[in-house]
Write a structure and sequence with these properties.
The chain has helices spanning 20-28, 32-43, 47-59, 67-78, 83-95, 103-115, 119-131, 139-151, 155-167, 175-186, 191-203, 211-223, 227-246. By secondary structure, the chain is an all-alpha fold. The radius of gyration is 21 Å and the shape is globular.
Length: 255
């Protein structure tokens, strides 16, 4: 199954540094004095410190994990125009984390962040249009937002363009174009793109069928924690073992 990718491969992007202030979180997290100062700065209305406070509650870094508290601080930061916080609020509404799932509300916050050039929000908007979540399905609109995201080097947006070409959603089916975008994304270490490349080789879509090449890409994706790739790898390994007994290659299951 070729899957679209959420911002950061369905991983909340605040899990890693996404700005200069994000980098300071790791450096100061262990200091009680820094934490006290962070609280004071956040309470005083510092948007950057409010964002970092939200990150702490979202991940349970130095505090008990509390998604409702994280949302409170993300919203405070977002109200000061912090695009990263706007994206985070949208993501939590999108996934129903700490709040009731609400795609319309998610889109509202994504649009605010995207207007400031946030590439993760742009990718998510495309994802909502592709699925018709909170908006009518519109593949052309999805492609527009994926391209905006990809233009900034967002690996999720790049891979999602490939999926649209592979599935012929809003564009003519073009496996070569799909492969091009998957490779661009995979070059940045995207396991989902590696899975999709493996699928193309596995089933001979736009390329000569090559199970060894498929296994190579599945193996790389599986090493990054992609369970679907690991499952496909097990299937192909099983097929190889069976072929050694009966002289024929058994077809792996299609998703």
């Amino acid at each position: 199954m070729k899957r679209f990718i959420l911002g950061s491969l369905a991983v909340f992007m605040i899990a890693v540094p996404v700005s200069g202030s994000g980098e300071s979180l790791q450096a100061g997290d262990a200091s009680k004095g820094v934490a006290v100062q962070m609280n004071a700065d956040a309470e005083s209305g510092d948007a950057g410190q409010q964002y970092l406070m939200a990150v702490r509650y979202y991940h349970g870094q130095g505090v008990e994990r509390d998604y409702a508290e994280a949302m409170k601080w993300f919203k405070r930061s977002a109200e000061h125009g912090n695009a990263e916080a706007e994206y985070a609020v949208g993501y939590m509404y999108d996934k129903g984390i700490g709040v009731k799932q609400d795609y319309v509300e998610a889109m509202k916050w994504y649009q605010r962040a995207a207007a400031k050039g946030n590439d993760n929000a742009q990718n998510q908007i495309g994802y909502l249009y592709q699925h018709g979540w909170g908006v009518p399905i519109d593949y052309a609109e999805a492609m527009k937002w994926f391209r905006l995201s990809a233009a900034k080097g967002n690996y999720a947006g790049e891979s999602n363009i490939g999926v649209l070409y592979e599935r012929a959603q809003g564009v003519e089916q073009d496996y070569a174009e799909a492969m091009k975008w998957y490779r661009i994304s995979a070059a940045k270490g995207n396991g989902e793109a590696e899975l999709n490349i493996g699928n193309l080789y596995h089933h001979g879509l736009g390329v000569k069928r090559d199970l060894n090449e498929a296994m190579r890409w599945y193996r790389s994706a599986a090493a990054k924690g992609n369970e679907e790739a690991a499952q496909k790898l097990r299937i192909l390994n099983g097929s190889e073992r069976e072929s050694s007994h009966d002289g024929s290659m058994h077809e792996a299951h299609h998703d």
